[in-house]
Amino acid sequence: MVIPVLVGLAxxxxxxxxxxxxxxxxxxxxxxxxxxxxxxxxxxxxLRVARAAAPEGAEVSVGRTGDLVRVRVTVPLPRFxxxxxxxxDALDESTLExxxxxxxx
Length: 105
Description:
Elements: H1 2-38, H2 43-53, E1 59-65, E2 68-75, E3 84-91, H3 93-101
Antiparallel strand pairs: 1-2, 2-3
Helix pairs in contact: 1-2
């Protein structure tokens, strides 16, 4: 009776570790994609960078709102019983030149 409970507990712990590691990879992938987008890389390069760092089967989306670039990485439900999602935002570096270089003596 104790052995099946221990096996189930061990499996649950392993699943939790895998889910935690996948979430960390999602966060890293979103940050890497946002950094690439902030450097004004091409959209294809941003997706390549984010997908390279993301867990297998993750969905990557890139959006822009004004000067803010947003990268979202999601691992859909079939892989884990919960949806893992991470999002990173970055300010486009080309807009910083305009702000820093504006109107001073």
